[in-house]
Amino acid sequence: MLKIDNLQANVADKQILKGLSLTINPGEIHAIMGPNGAGKSTLGYTLGGRPGYEVTGGSVDFNGQDLLELEPHERAAAGLFLGFQYPVEIPGVSFVQFLREAANAQRKGRGEEPLSGGEFLKLAREKAGLLRMDMDMLKRPVNVGFSGGEKKRAEMVQMGILDPKLAILDETDSGLDIDALRICGEGINAIMRAPDKAVLLITHYQRLLDYVKPDFVHVLAAGRIVRSGGPELALQLEEEGYEAVVA
Ligand code: ADP
Ligand code: MG
Ligand code: MG
């Protein structure tokens, strides 16, 4: 599904990704862990096509397409979803309106008809229910005044509506209390655990992985994957710290 080969990328003229390679097959869940400043968010943003993240080498194939050639909206239409470490607030735009625009922009990119109001509401209710999110909450402006947990749950509702092939989730567990962590973990499983889908979870902690069991765990340090293993690697990292494992 995703084949990253020797990816190099600069942010503000500084090389952050220094030859990163990673292959993700359909049906797999991968976790990337690593110290602060390792380049984890940079990897997510580079794959999402965020302006200012300049690719200087390497290649990324996404389901047979050259991902790096696509505009960000084309990447979304192709089935890529990026969940942000820090979801943005958009005063003046309600979450339902935002979700409907996003869903229909994605459908347009695929040459599909837009959802009718009724179709959209049915879909939104279903996904909001998965994340135990009240529809009234989604009538409020995007993320404005939402708690950390509500922002992440709302983002998972968005993921459910967009129904991506590959979700890259950057520290979805940050700022979550224990209940929100479980709800988000179960939401990720309900939406993304399928033979034709895959997830790349970026996380500092084992706790999200208790709910969303990864098939592979990778350590990203100084812009490269320096170690890969199974779920036991996350436990070892938690126990011994990055320095001991990476050294
Ligand atoms: P992580 O998510 O692993 O904590 P990041 O990808 O956010 O790491 O950051 C990797 C490195 O890139 C850090 O040294 C950070 O300071 C630097 N960096 C990220 N964004 C910018 C930016 N906009 N301008 C300059 N440096 C940046
Ligand atoms: Mg960080
Ligand atoms: Mg980060």
From TrEMBL:
Alphabetical list of InterPro entries matching this protein: ABC_transporter-like_ATP-bd, FeS-cluster_ATPase_SufC, P-loop_NTPase
Pfam families: ABC_tran
Domain ABC transporter: 2-247
Keywords: ATP-binding, Nucleotide-binding
Superkingdom of origin: Bacteria
Family: Belongs to the ABC transporter superfamily. Ycf16 family.
Protein name as catalogued: Fe-S cluster assembly ATPase SufC
Source species: Novosphingobium clariflavum
Name of the encoding gene: sufC
